[in-house]
Amino acid sequence: MSVDITGRHIEITPALREFTVDKLQKLHKYLDDIIETHVILAVEKHRHIAEIVVHARTATMSGSGETEDMYSAIGLVMEKLERQAKKHKEKIKRRNKKKGAESIRTALPPAPETEMAGPSAGEPPRIVRTNSYLVKPMTPEEAVLEVDGSHSEFVVFRNSISQRISVLYRRPDGSFGLIEP
Fold first, then answer.
1. Per-residue model confidence as pLDDT tens digits over 52-104
2. Are 71 and 91 within 8 A, CB to CB?
3. Which of 9, 22, 40, 42 could lock onto 51 through a cystine, CB 3.0 to 4.6 A?
4. Which helix (H) or strand (E) holds 51?
5. Are 47 and 8 in contact (CB under 8 A)?
6. Where are the domains of the chain?
7. Does CATH number 3.90.700.10 belong to domain 2-94?
8. Rounded Cα gap, residues 76 and 78, in angstroms
9. Rounded distance between C-alpha atoms, residue 18 and residue 13, angstroms
10. Which secondary structure element, helix H or strand E, spans residue 56, and what is its range?
């Protein structure tokens, strides 16, 4: 995990840096895939402000706190981030538990070969199953993180660069494919 600490109107002392990094280590209990962390410490008159943004593989969390002491501002932000990380971890556990139960219930025996041949010459194809997906705006890179962080093989999203609907899918070799209109 890389930690980037920026000071605005404050000098980042080794003790302050060590305190911040030690507090950030507590997040590994909830997020074991932290990529990078940005910490901004600022002083404005008598206000000490700490802002922290944590980028993990499955989520991005941020928080800010303001007190009269920088150490307590960092502690306040860390409490907020720990709550967010704990909530995120519980959400992932619930989602994985729910998906596991559904996959057992919906497992079907293989279809006979006569049905696999497809519709006869006179019949139009049937729609057997319909799914609807929430289309969120994101970049293709964020879509890769979304597919990587879930058990889904694809994600339908609105490309925030081109504003078009796109589909990102996992290929059999482990790489990703992108379908755009």
1. 999 998 889 999 999 999 999 999 999 999 999 999 988 888 887 766 554 44
2. no
3. 40
4. strand 47-56
5. no
6. 2-94, 134-181
7. no
8. 5
9. 9
10. strand 47-56
